[in-house]
Write a sequence for this structure.
């Protein structure tokens, strides 16, 4: 069966410090991978998505970057965190392309990031 | 471009009332899937339902039902006889052949005893 791992669950970081959140998927190949952010009391904002190794699409210009060094690994990074980067970060995956598209997206448990 | 709109930011009902959460979507693709997810206070996203663009049959699952209408680009979600445990944020989402999973802003549902 497929599973998705996202860590850490919670993180408190000072302004200006770097960030690295990792997400890995098991039990599937060539998934579409996503990073979402949810600010307090707001909706889900798509930050990045990837359809393959090294292929990253950025939805919102910001202080963050994403990388996909392996097929089932998706990393969210920042060189210098801002206060506005605080939020709940969710990794997700789905499979399929176009007509062969799968019908469900699966989410990790999320990382609650507080920048102080 | 694709977009999902959930116009209702917050809804508050009393237990046992029926409640409908609205979702309107936009996409240029003819093949797409629509989803509803529930996010309880603990934060994780719980999958509720998917519907593909070629299947306009409405669906009922226990107290939950979904009304998909392509003519109005809507995929509304109704909870019958609501319960306190239904209190959560509910998200409508869309994925199309471009592989982008797009969410609406969410609707905060509060069911009061």
């Amino acid at each position: 069966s497929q599973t998705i791992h996202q860590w850490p669950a919670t993180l408190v970081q000072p302004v200006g410090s770097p960030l690295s959140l990792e997400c890995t998927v098991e039990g599937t190949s060539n998934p579409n991978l996503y990073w979402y952010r949810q600010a307090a009391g707001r909706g889900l904002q798509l930050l990045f998505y990837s359809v393959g190794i090294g292929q990253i699409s950025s939805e919102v210009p910001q202080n963050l970057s994403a990388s996909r060094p392996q097929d089932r690994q998706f990393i969210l990074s920042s060189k210098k965190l801002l206060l506005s980067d605080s939020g709940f970060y969710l990794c997700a995956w789905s499979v399929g392309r176009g007509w062969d598209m799968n019908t469900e997206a699966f989410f990790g448990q999320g990382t609650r990031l507080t920048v102080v | 471009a694709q977009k999902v709109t959930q116009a209702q930011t917050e809804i508050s009902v009393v237990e046992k009332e029926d409640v409908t959460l609205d979702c309107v979507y936009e996409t240029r693709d003819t093949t797409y899937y629509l989803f509803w997810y529930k996010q309880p206070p603990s934060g994780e996203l719980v999958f509720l339902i998917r519907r593909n663009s070629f299947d306009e049959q409405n669906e009922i699952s226990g107290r939950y039902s979904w009304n998909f209408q392509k003519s109005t680009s809507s995929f509304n979600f109704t909870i019958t006889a609501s319960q306190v445990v239904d209190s959560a944020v509910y998200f409508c989402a869309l994925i199309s052949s471009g592989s982008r999973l797009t969410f609406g802003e969410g609707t905060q549902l509060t069911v009061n005893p």
